[in-house]
Each structure stands twice: as structure tokens, then as C-alpha cells.
Amino acid sequence: MKRLLGELGTDARTIDGRALPALLLERAARHPRQVFMRAKRHGVWREHGWGEVLAHVREFAAGMAALGLRAGERVAMISENIVEAFWAEYATHCRGASFVGIYPDIATHELLYLLEHSQARLLFAEDQEQIDKVLAIHERLPRLRWVVYVDPRGLWEYSRPWLLSLPEFVARGRADAAAAPDEFERCARAVRLDDVAVVSYTSGTTGRPKGAQMTHRQVLDSAYRVMAAFRLPPHAEYLSYISLAWAAEQITGVALGVLAPLVVNFAEKPETIKHDLRELGPQFLLFAPRQWEMMSSDMQSHMLEVGAARRALYRWALRAGAAAVEPDAGPVKKSLRAIADRLVLRALRDNLGLARTRAALSAGSGLSAEIFALFRALGVPLHNVYGSTEAGLLTAHWKGRFKAETMGQILPSCPSLNSPIELTISDSGELLARGGSVFAGYLGDAAASADIFDAEGRLRTGDAVHLDEAGDLVFLDRVKDLRRLAGGHVFPPQFIENHLRASPFIRDAIVIGDETREFVTALINVDGEIFRRWSEQRGLAAATFTEMSQLDPIRREVAAAVASVNRLLDPAARVARFANLPKDLDPDDSELTRSRKLRRGVIDERFASIIEALYGASGECQARIRIQYQDGTEGSLAARVFINSLPGAHE
Amino acid sequence: MLPSGVFFRDFAAEAAYLRTGPQRLALALFVLALVLLPALAGAYLVGVITLMFVTMIAVLGLQITVGMAGMINIGQSAFVGIGAFVSASLASKLGWPFWLTLPAAALAAGVSSLLFGLPALRIKGFYLALTTVAAQIVFPIGIARLPSAWFGGSSGLAVEPVSIFGHALLKQHELYYFNLAFVLLFALLAFNLKRTRVGRALIAVRDNDIAASVLGVNIGYYKLVAFFVGAVFAGVAGALLGYVVSYVTTDHFTLWLSIWYISMLIVGGMGSPLGAIFGTVVITALQESLHALGNAAAARFGSDFGAFIFPATNSVLGVLIIAILVFQPHGLLTGWNTLKAAYRIWPYRHHGG
Amino acid sequence: MTVEPALEAVDLKVSFGAIKALDGVSLRVDAGQILSVIGPNGAGKSSLLNCLSGVYRPHSGRVLFHGRDITALAPHRRAALGVARTFQGIQSYASMTVRQNILAGFHCRMKTGLLDALLYWPRAQREEREFSARAEEIIEFLELEELRHTLVGELGYGLRKRVDLGRALALGPSVLVLDEPMAGMSVEEKADLARFVLDIRAAHNTPVILVEHDMEVVMDISDQVLVMEWGRAIALGAPAEVRIDARVINAYLGAEEP
Q: What ipTM was estimated for this complex?
């Protein structure tokens, strides 16, 4: 059991007990002409000032009131990130209702479930594609009264009593709004911090998605944490790209947009994001690992097209950039980096649209260390941020430490909303959160809502974490994916394997250890090609893969790689011993699938003698491996395999 | 392609020629350099550049006829000549001030170009080029045959200096500034034309005349417009030339000069007024440097050698032009644009160009 | 009440020497209708379209646009009336960008004259802005956003055909005449183009006359099909009727088979 206590933020922009609608009204009154949103449309970036946005929100809210929406009900929206989605969401908040964002690529039956479960009264749908989905399920949704579409294209001939175009929707509210002009503000100011702002459906790897109810307090507190940690200046340029269905965009886009406030930018279409990102050059953005991976592979594929000299320069510049990232980088490294920046890195950032970026966030676990390091070497201030829909954002790289493997340090919470975040790591390795502002339970699921808090009122994140030597949070696995050793200690097998694989010397790794074993061991498939070149440079002789895999210097290299992964783990969860496999794992030999996934059954059986030796007393074993080839013939391989022990791990 | 972070909020900003701070700064510095030049350069160089400005206006006009509308015109110097004679005649015989002689010269050149442009309604390419050569041939004969009281016949006309508010521009740098003002104005007009409805219609006629007509472009009208505007530029250049050289004869306006104009346009790049500017500057610079080299050689090795060296410099100039076209077949402008694009996209690979 | 035909051709005859390209062809298309013209190569389809758009003048017969005789009108005058046409193959302006091509299509809706253009004074600027915005609506409609500043010469065939269509739309057409808009396209590109044609009809009730070889598309989207052979119309009717017409099966399908 470990406890960590966060701190309170010192950013002067306070919330003062106001929910999003009151903040929106205050900001719009203070700077009505200041740009709030900017959307690329028809080839140019149209700007919407605070006054104009508020006018739209007012219109939307009046339309909602006219259609009979009451406080506490739900409004859903299925669309890409467009200005109208933000207007609809703020209007929903101003009516005291809560907003359900839905991914535009959702399947029809999933849409049915979300609309049914959320009991949405009103649905905004972006275009014909979404309306066609709704038409297929509408009769099974008696609670859904109205559907409003944004883009009329292709919908000219659709006629349903419950289907409205945006202008029709707005027109419905006009008479009421004229009759009672103060109604909008009265209703907006009545919204309280603990009202539910958003129902965010968590994807739920098991069972149906659950609707987490995020209160105004929760989204504002989390937004405050990002603002305070990254010192975002007012009116920073933000690119809204991640779906509103995701809690992270609700925090950094919708809530922070009003709080900081931000200039929220929208791409023309999802297809033009790359181009629009470059054109805009945002100061702040939040992408999922997937988007960072795509940017990196896009850049790398561009660099594959260039000549050898330019590629060599590129590689050198990335190395110089990476070397200067180290905290102890001296003046030489720093000046080399400055040269590399001038020649190559700055131009690459410019090409990617990250030249002006002050804070680039990667949310959701799993951005590979390699890609993280690449962006850092480029000079992009990339930070991991970690949290959950239920708990909000908890940690991020913000105190000058940004190792790819870690999720950083506890974020500072908002002094006017709540106490500092308190994190506990339970004996089973699970992260528990208290303090700060958390969600208000799952919609319509009291049992699950109660279940997520432990006896002391701490929220169970379901994530297995660990603190590294600097005290930074390392995400290991979901708790349910951990494996248990004979002594009761748990370890994260996938986490270890993924991190081992990230080493250039290791092609594949198989972590051994279960309730019959006392400690963790690993079988390592070294990367033959890389080691062959590595050995040649050092004048080491090895005729075969088998021989090479057992060479002393090579075993030492692998041991170093394993030790660096061990540093991310508790002593009891560390890899205590490993052996290098005497043969390359090969789909032709049935050890891997064609997509290079491990066939664990085959491996366990084929290398049983080595596995036994890993848990034996002798420092080596004479392995005899029978191989059943695909063509039916059989062969066998005899090899002397060394068992390597690592210091600092429990045996 | 622009650097990251440069984006436009409306179409007016997008259409502007100068869209970034550095671009505005570069142009401001360039104009400043042009303004300061007479103070720093010798009288000879200032004279050369003044003449270059005049040439540039003629080549800018040619870019409209040939580059935008795609009609070959090998008679541009005849239209320059018409402008020069009309202006000189009105100034010397009737005492018209320059602000009247200039438009008159422009109009005269423009209207007479229509005569030679009319065949363009029926014929294209090579045949059309020949009719423009006809303009080149008819021009000196016409001047010689018309009453010498009009245009001075074959002996030509003297031109009084330009007078502004009673002040005659006699000094070299005064003429320099006078012509600089006109070249800046006409460059702007040419750039303007390209980005509007009329410019697009001209390009449409060049790219695909049948499709243009079905989309509502009156092809005949725009072909004549192309000739007319090109010749108006020539007429203005002619009038200005008269004031610079202070005496005009038909010997100034030869087929040879027309071919130089075309060469400047081809070397610079036909697609944009910028190409006309590039070409004029580069060819003038080459001409002048080879000329200077020839002078130096003649001074060193004696005048007998000079008889050999001057034709030789022309051959070298020819070789240099061919070399430019071998490496940049679409003109220097294309090379410049490729270079800019490659710089912007660095270190990615630049495709095309 | 009788519906006034948007475009009507009466007894058109065109011959080149001894060859009768068109031998008494008539057709009419009403608002909101899609009329397809099919027939083997050399049947006179393009000659028919050329008479409708004014590239050819028929030796006899008349072309009526909303009841007005336009047989003698030059192509650019017909364009000004709203008869928009695309051609076989690629006819967009290669050296202009996608947006400039569409702006060029607005030629007869714009007013900037020579002097306005040279001086580019506020009136000309205003018009440029206004029509840039309108061009962008067409770009959005045809889903060409990523390519608005790309030179058309750098685009693939299917996209260039789409630009051709965009340029025709810029006329704000009262009748849209498309000559083999889908020839040489991939299946996906054809489906996109068919969708655009249907959307144009749905949004503006614009009648469309279409020459197309892909029978599947023709039967799918047309209200009427005109079948031609040797300069004559051999059948005219709804797709279902034409499909089973004996003469059509004989002539057209027979001609398709080598």
C-alpha cells in the first residue's frame, strides 16, 4: 500500500462555484469580440467570437426549450467535431440537461443501445449518413422525440414529423425566446456545479458500455488541472479533433475551452486534418496514441523517399535532438541540437504543424516509447496524460520529467472545487483515487456505481500501476490482466513483454510465471539481424543463430535491456532470470502466427526443457528441441542454453 | 505552400499577393533598394536600368498576349514603335504633355494591334505568328511613307524631355524615377489581370478554347483583348523610350528587338508577370556584362580585336540562353518556384518541377 | 396544365458530306428529369449534344430552350442562358487550380471587365470574394476540399472529370448536358459521380441530358432513355421499356458484340 498526495493549483483563473453556463455567460460578456471558435469551411477559417457563439447557444437553447426539453434530461449528438456540436452541447448545459457525445462511425445497433440507454429526448445528427442510421431504429426509440440534422445535403426529400433541419429547429424557439428573453439566462444561471454535464459512455471491454455521469465540477476540475499544469495562456489556439464521445475532449475542448479560455479550432473534414493541422499550427492539442502514430509514420514515409545524404542528415539530427532531451545534456549537446534544429528539426515540426505547439498531449495509455522519443527528439513538447472517465485526469508529465514509460506526476487540482488528489496503490497493485472531483455514478446502474468505490470511498480505477524510482506513475495493465505468482505477488506480463520488445535487440519475448512459480522469468528471441551487424562491428564470431544467441556479450546486452524494464517494476514483479532462445521464432515452424503473434502453447511445449532450467538450480541446460516443420518432416536442434540471472529481482 | 501557422480568415486575405510578414518585408526592402540605387550606382548603370524598365513594360505586355492567352506575337517592337512615334509626334508637333501623349500612344498601339490580331479569330500558332511578323514589316514602311510632317519619315523625330509641373526631367536619375514609377504601375496591372475573371478567360482560351466557349467565354473577344492589352503596354513602353533616348527612328524597332522580347519572356517563364520581370532582368544583365567584358577586352587588345569580340559576345549570350533553357525549359520562374516549394517542404522530398 | 420542356430538340438533321450524323432526331427533357442517350459509337450522340450546346448548327430542325428558339445562338450565349455542358475526355484547364477552374466556369455570371481587372479596384475585389465563396460551395458539394489549390493538370482522370462537372455547375445551369461523364472511371468514381448527378437533380430540380456507355448506371439513374443508331432515334422511353425493346436489343446489343 502506497499513498501519494497531490497539490492544489495556483492558477489565478478560478471557477468560483460557477458551472459551465455561468462561466460561458461571464466570458462572453467580458470579451464578446474575442475569437472563441475557428472552423475551416469553404477554404477559409471562419471565426466565431464569444458574443456570436453565445447567440448561437441562446438560439439552440430556445429551440430545445420549444421542443420540450427539461432539465435533467439527455441530449445526444452524433457528429464529427464541428462548431454546431459545441453549440448544441453548451445549449444543453444551459438548459440544465446533459450531453451524450457519440462517435460518428458507430454501428447502428450500438447507436440504438446508446440512445435507448441514455433515454435521449433530442438527437442532433450531422448528415444523411447518420440520419439513415436513425431511420433504421427510430421506431424502437419511443423516448426520442426529435432529431435535428446539421447538413441538409441529400436530405431534401426526407420528410418525417420528428425530423428537423437546423434552421427549422432554431425557428421553433424564436417565438418563445422573444416572449421571454430572460428565460435563457435564468435557466443557465440555475445550473449547479454538481449537475451532470456529460454522460460519457466507456467502451467497456466486457459487457455493455456504461454511461459515466460527469458533473460540471468534475470536467471543470480536470480542465483546471491541465490548464494549471501546462500553464496554458488565455486564448491559446487549440485544435479539436478527438471525438466529443471521449471524456478527454469534454475536458480539454468543451470545459477548458470556456475556462482557460481557448480558441477552439476545427478542421474542414476529418480527411483534411493533416493539412489543416499544418496550416493552423495550434499551440495546444490532444491526440490519442493512434494519431501520434499516424503522424510519425507519415513523417517517416516521407523521409524514406529522400536520398541517402538527406536521410543521413535526418538521422543525425534526430540523434542530436534525442541526446539533448536528457536532463544532464551539456553545452556541447545543446549546441549540436541547436544546429540540428536549424537544419532539420524545425522544418519537420513545421511540416507536421507542430512548430508553435506549447503542449501536445497524448491521452490513453499505450503510446510506444519509440514514437514518444521520436517526437521529443523533434522538439515537440509531448506529454503523456493519464486518467479515466470516472476519475477525470489524474497524472501527466508536467514537472520536467517526461519518460515515455511513465504517466507522469499527480496533477494539481482546482483550489475552489476540491481537495488535492490523493492516489493509493493497493496491495494488489490497483490505483485508487480520492480527492479532486470524480464522477457522479453510472447512469441507471446503482450497483456498478457503488461497486467502483472501496470501503474508504476511494475510486477503483481498475488499472494496475507502479511508481518508478523518481516517483512517477507507470501504467502496467488492467488489474484483471495481471498474473499472480505462487507467493501471491502479481506481475503484468503484457507490460513486460511490450517493453522488452521495444529494445532494438529483442525481437520477441515470452514472460513465464504463474501461480505454480515463485518468480518471473522470460524467454528472449534476440534480433538476429541486428546482433549479426553488432557482432561484426565488434569482431565476434558466430556461425549460427544458436551460437550467437548464447555469446557472452550478447547475453550482457539483453540483460541490460531486461534490467531497464525491471526498473519500471516492483522487485517482486521483476524478471529474475531469462534465457535467449537458441532459434529464431518462425511462422514456418508454427511458433508464430502469420501475423507474428506468439503461439504460446507451441512455445511452452517446444522449449519446455529451457523453461524448466529457468526455474532450476543449474546455470545452463542442454536443450534438445524437436521441430515439426510445415511440410510434415521433423528435425531437431541441440543447443547449450545459458540461464541468466538478474540482480535486484526476487527469486 | 506557406509556412505552418499562416492561414486566412477570408478570401481577400487569401488573394493578397503578400501574405506573410517576411514577404512584405522583402518587397519593402526591394523597393527601397530601387529607390536608393541612383545614389549608389554610376550614371551608366542608372541609364541601363532605366532602359531596362522600359523594356520590362513591353515584355510584361507580351506576357499577356503570349503567356496568358497563348498567341505568339513576334511583332511587339512594332507596337512599341507605334507608341514611340505617336507620342513623339504629339509632343513635338502639338506640344502635348506626357500625361496626354502616353495614353494616346497606348491607344494607338492597342488599336493598331487589333488589325493584326483579327486573323487570330481564324488562325492559330505558327500562322498567327507570321501575321505578327507582318506588323513588324509594315511598321517601318508605313512610317517612311506617311507624310514626314506626321512622324518625321525615315529620318525620325526628336523628342522633347518630359516636363512635370514645368520642370524638365533632364538628369539621368530623374528619368530613372519617372520610369520606375511606370514599371511598378504596369507590373501591378499585369498581376491584377491574371487573378481576375479576364485573366482566367485568357488562360481558358489558351488551355482549351472549345470548352471555354461552351462555358460562356467569347473567344474572339478575348483573343482581341489579349492583343490589345499587350500592345497597350508596348505603346506605353514606346512613349517612355522616346523620352529616355530623346530621338526615335524606325531603326530602333526591329524584328531583332521583338525576338529579344520573346527571348526574355521565354527565359523568364511565360506563366506569370514575374517571369517577364525575371527574364528582362537576367537577359539585360547578361547583355550588359558581356558588353562590359567586350569593352575591357577591346581596350586591352586593341580595336582590331574589338571587331571580333563584339560578335563573339553575342554568341556567348546565345549559348548562355540555350544553357538556361536546357536546365529550365519552362523558364527561370519555374526553377524559382520549384526552389521555393522545395525549401518549404524540406526535408521532405519535393515532387515535380 | 402542360409542363413546358426545359430543353427540346425538334427534328435535328446534321450531315458531313454524305454521312448523316443526325437524321431527324427529336427529344425533350423536363425539369427534374434525367435523360440518357445511348447507342454504339458513331450513332450520332455527340453530334446531338453539339447541336444542343451550339458547337454545331443543325442543317434543319430547331433547338428550343424553355420554348425559346436558340438554334442560331453561339455556344457562349447559350451558356449565359444556362445550358451547361461537359465534354468527352478531359476539358478542364490544366494550368489552373481546381478553384480557378470553377471560377472560370462563373465567367458569364461575373461582370469584371478589362479595366476593372487591370485596376482590381474594390468592385472587382468584391466580385472575386463573392464568387470564390460560391466556387467553394461547389467544391464542397463535389468533395474536392483537399484539392482546391491543386493544379488540375496534376489530378487523375476521375478527379478531372469531377472538376469538369464542377465548372459546368458554376453556370448555375438550367439544363446540364454531360457527354460521357463516367468514361474511364473506376467503379467507385462512377458511383460518386452518379450520386453527384442525383444530388444535383434533388437539390435544384435541374434536368440532365447524359451520354453514357455504362448501361448499369444508365438504367439506374435515368428517367428516360433515348437509343440512337446511325443518326436516328430508334427508341425512347423509361429504362424498363427500353431494355425489352426488340429493336434496341437487335441494334444496340448486337452492335456491342464483336
A: 0.89
